[in-house]
Structures are given as structure tokens and as C-alpha cells.
Design brief:
This protein is mostly beta strands. About 15% of the residues lie in helices and about 55% in strands. The protein is built from one helix and nine strands.
Length: about 140
């Protein structure tokens, strides 16, 4: 059992090494392009597909807090809660109506090609659930 626990610790520390290695060179945020996705609305007892559109957004980290960030889109900006996982960062947005939007940016072994990402929206309009999910690539932003 002790060998198994040691193996788990080594694997966890190894997965964190890329994050620790960022140091002062850590991204200040990301610019994300989501070109693959769609939306679904709940009607007549089932989810029906609706047209999706490309989505572009920018996430900027709060330099005073590791758990805060700002989302910038063509529609404006909003505050995000940043949650760090072992090999990803999750950004949670609570909308004015109390619904959730979630963006997950995964670590990549080749940052030059960008970071794989998923953006999901969970909301309702007039009692009708509407969900969407987009898949794309984020590029690190190194400066302010």
C-alpha cells in the first residue's frame, strides 16, 4: 500500500510540474476561439438541436487573486471564479439570472499549438432549458 501511495504522489507531483514551471512566465490569460459547437433547447419532452455559432472570448487573470478572472466578449465583460485542477483551469461565470457558464482550458504538452478548451452554457429562458457546448483552442496571453 505504501508503494501505491508513493506512486500516486509522484504522478500528482509530476502533473503539477508544468504548472510550477510556469513561474513568472505564467499566462496572464487566454484568447479562445471556439469553432465547433452547438445548442439544444428542451421542447416537447426532449432536447432539440439549434444552430450553433463560432465563439471568441478572452479570459484575463486577476493579478491580486489566483481565484478571480475576467471574461471579455464582444457583448461586454463579467467576473469569473477560477478553479485550478491538476491539468486544467476551470472558469465559472454566474450570470445575472443565476445560470452557469463554464470554460475549461486544459494543459497542453505543446503550448505553441494552443490549449484545448470547452465552453458550456446552462441557462433557461421562460422556463425552457437551453444548453450549449463549444470546443476550441485557447492561446496564452503573456502580458497585461
Amino acid at each position: 500500500m505504501a508503494k501505491f501511495a508513493t506512486l500516486i504522489i509522484v504522478v500528482l507531483l509530476g502533473s503539477l510540474s508544468d504548472r510550477v514551471a510556469w513561474g513568472a512566465d505564467a499566462p496572464q490569460g487566454y484568447i479562445c476561439n471556439f469553432e465547433d459547437g452547438g445548442a439544444w433547447t428542451f421542447q416537447a419532452g426532449k432536447f432539440l438541436p439549434e444552430g450553433g455559432k463560432n465563439l471568441k472570448l478572452e479570459i484575463r487573470h486577476d493579478q491580486k487573486s489566483s481565484t478571480k478572472a475576467t471574461l471579455k466578449t464582444s457583448d461586454g465583460s463579467s467576473k469569473l471564479k477560477r478553479v485550478a485542477a491538476l491539468d486544467a483551469d476551470h472558469y465559472l461565470e454566474v450570470t445575472v439570472g443565476g445560470y452557469l457558464n463554464i470554460t475549461t482550458i486544459f494543459d497542453s504538452s505543446n503550448e505553441k499549438n494552443g490549449f484545448p478548451a470547452v465552453h458550456s452554457r446552462h441557462l433557461g429562458i421562460l422556463g425552457r432549458p437551453i444548453v450549449s457546448q463549444f470546443r476550441g483552442i485557447c492561446q496564452a496571453v503573456k502580458g497585461p
